[in-house]
Amino acid sequence: MLAPLYEHPPYPDAVKWDYAGHESVDWMLNLLLNFFMLSFDGGRFALMPEFIASVGPAIVTPIIEMRRTGYQATTILILTFILGYFYQTMGGGIILPLWWTLHFWLTSNNVVPIPTNYSEATLAGYVAGYVTVSLAMIMFQNPVAIAIWQFFPAYVLVFQALSLFSQRFLFKTSFNTPYQPFHTIHIFNLLWSAVSHAYTLIFVFKSPSPFNALKDIYLPDLSLPSNLYITLARNFCKWDYICIGLSTAFAGLWLLRGTKPRLYALVAFVLASSLLGVGAGLSCIWIMREIQVSKLCSKPTSVNERKQM
Question: Each residue of 190-215: pLDDT tens digit?
Fold first, then answer.
C-alpha cells in the first residue's frame, strides 16, 4: 500500500536514520518514519489520534483468539511477531483481512478456556507495549517517538513474556477470572476511542464548513493535488482506518453465536462508531464476544460437547 511513495524521491524534509546498518532494513524503517511524519502533518491531520485508537482492538484481538482456539503460548508469540512485521510493512488494512481469513479457514470453532495468567499478561503487554508508545507518539509527534513506536509488536511480546515470568516466580495474578483483563482492555479501548473521536469532532465543528471538514477527515481523496506526499500518506491512513475497522468488526461478528447476538452487536457497532469512534464500536462487539464466551465456558458440558465447541 506504500507503493506510490516508493515511486517518488524523498520529499525535501525527509528524515534519514541509520537504524541497523543494513541498507534495505534502514530504507524500509526510514520510509515508515517519514510516512508517519507526513501523516501527522504537524498536527493538522485530525484523524491520526482516532486512527491509532482504532488500531488497538485490531492489535489485541488476534492474540486473544489464537489462545482461545488452543494455540500454545510459544506459537502465539511467533505468529504475533510475524503479524506485527507484516502490519508495519504492508499495512493493517491488507494483512488483517488475510490473517482473519486464514485463521477461520485453518482453525475450528473451538472455545478453549484461557488461563487467567495469560489474559493478565495480554493486558500488561498491550498497555505497556502498544498503548504507552502510541500515546507518546501522539503527544510528541517527533521522529524519535515515531521511531520508537515502529517496534510496538516486539514491545507487546516482551512485556507479555515478562508478565508471565513475574507471575510464575514473583507475583500471583491480580484478577479472579480470565475475562476480567479482557473486559478491562475493551472498556479502555472504548474510552480511548471516545476521547480521540471527541478530539476529531473539535476540528470538525471549528471549521467554517463542518460537513466538508467531516468528509475531508474521514473520506479518502480520489484525486491527487500538488501536495502529493501528504495526500498519499493521508489516503493510506484513511483506507487503513476503514479496512482495519471492517475486518475486525467482521471477525467479531463471525465469532459470535446466534443471529440475535450478532444483530445486537452490529447495531451497537454502528451506534458506538458514529458517536464514539470506530474503536468504541469494535470494543462493543468484542465485549459481547467475551460475555458470550464466559457463559459458554461456565456451562457444565460433557466431553463430547466440549469437543463440538
Answer: 999 999 999 999 988 988 888 888 88
